[in-house]
Amino acid sequence: MSETDHIPARIKLARRMAGLDTQAALLKRIPQWKPSRLGNYEAGVSTPGPDDILLIARATDTSACWLMFGLGPIRPSARDLQAIRHQNLSRLAEQSETGLPDLAKGLRLTQKRLRDHLDNPFLPIDDDLAQRCEQVGEHRRGWMDEQHVEDDPLCMAFPEDMRELMMLYSELSKDGRRLVLATLRTLAGELGSG
Question: Is the predicted pLDDT of residue 157 greater than 80, yes or no?
Answer without folding.
Answer: no
